[in-house]
Amino acid sequence: MPPPGNRPDHLKTIDRLRRQAEELIRHRSGSDLETSTDIIELINELKIHQAELEIQNEELKRTQLELTDLYRQFEDLYEFAPCSYLNLNPKGLISRINLAGVMLLNGLREKILNTGFSQFVAPDWRDTNLDALKKAGRTGKTQRLELQLSNANALIIWVWAEIQAHRDDTGVVIQWRMTLVDISDKKNIEETLANASRDLDIKIKRRTAELSRANQQLQGEIGSRERAQKTLLQKSKELKAHMIGLKEANIALKVLLKEREDERHAIEEKMVCNINELTRPHLEKLAAGNLSQPQRALLDTIKRSLDDIASPLSRRFIIESSHLTPSETQVANFIRQGKTTKEIADLMCVATSTIDFHRLNIRRKLGLTNQRISLQSHLKSLL
């Protein structure tokens, strides 16, 4: 059992409540506790207080466990932090240091503790460190600076230091807290970069001299190239004149090709018209006559041959004259063959509304909009 002066707060509260209960019983013993009912009520009140105290005690225990766990976590964070943490007492002696600090100073924790931090500062930097400690203690502001340390193996280490002074209400320093980050690699890199910069300056000067000599040589070459450029300009003018002649010849060829294309279109159109106007009527008259079976088969062969001749010319003429799309051309051929909208839709694997849309476009492009003309008859008349 802990000494009375060191008892936890919750036990002190229990003692205080117990004394209050005893005082209450002594106060009531003369007059208030005259009946058993009063005694029972008092006992119930005490039981209630006892239950409340037990609940408070459990809550205090839980809180104490949480605080213990948080303290343990803080200790782990402090001890295994990647940067070095040190606490210095008012005399500048190291009172606490984490694992990173021990490794930084390259010594044993037992030997480092209670050792003056200035012993680990390089001699040329001790005044700087002392000034930073004094300023932090005087102003209460964090001091940030670079320091050069020398560890137990006399190895020079560069660190980035942050110094904070923990002061009491009167402003007297109780302890200093220091955070050290090893920047030796950064310093080595800076030194390497400085050396590289000096080497680069030397190389630049040497290269500049070489470029100056090369520039003089180039000046001589420029003169010869200017003369060559004048010659190239003359050749360029001659080529431009030749290109103009070629362009004029190309234009003339395009005109001739256009004329030949127009003639071909006229011949094809004339051929289709001759077949429809001169040949087909006679074939129809023959078909209406009294023909034998061999004669009728021969007549059908002649009709199919004429269709094979006229159909490609007619389709090309329709596409070129009315600008039908490939889908519209396909629909037009099906209509000419006498197929219905549903049959065409099934053959092309589309909706009937799509075929109706193509029909409207074909009529519009053939100039049949708002005219009571059969599209099938009109398409057949083109053959």
From TrEMBL:
GO terms for molecular function: DNA binding. Pfam families: GerE. Residues 39-73 form a coiled coil. GO terms for biological process: regulation of DNA-templated transcription. Residues 143-195 form the PAC domain. PANTHER family: DNA-BINDING TRANSCRIPTIONAL ACTIVATOR DEVR_DOSR. The keyword Nucleus does not apply. Residues 317-383 form the HTH luxR-type domain. It comes from the Bacteria. This is HTH luxR-type domain-containing protein. Keywords: Coiled coil, DNA-binding, Transcription, Transcription regulation.
